[in-house]
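just leaving the lab so this will be short. what follows is a protein written twice so to speak, once as letters and once as structure tokens for the fold. can you read through it and tell me how you think this chain folds. anything you notice is useful, everything is just below:
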Amino acid sequence: MSRSYVKVHALTERECDVLRLMAEGKSHAEIGKEWCISPATVRTHANAIYSKLHVTSRTDAVIKAHAWGIVRLPGLSPVALAILQLLRVEPGAWQELIESGVLEREP
């Protein structure tokens, strides 16, 4: 991720890290355990991300971050991303949907 994005949109490095782990489908508890912080602290970071990205959910944050190049979601076509956003599918369930053939992969 470029430093310019962080500067322009005022995301901290920690918030960017949380966003990347959210894109991997990790829960607040899993992220907290990995960093030795409480899930409530992770939730505080997540809420700051939602506010700064002008979104209200983990799914919307991850999809917007992907669109802006903050995180990479390999294997998902633009149509698949739109479907995930419309259906509000949590990031952790995306891989299962791809592997089952429900969502199309990028060409």
Summary: The CA atoms of residues 24 and 92 lie 6 Å apart. The two ends are 23 Å apart (CA to CA). The chain has one domain: 3-99. The chain has a mean pLDDT of 80.
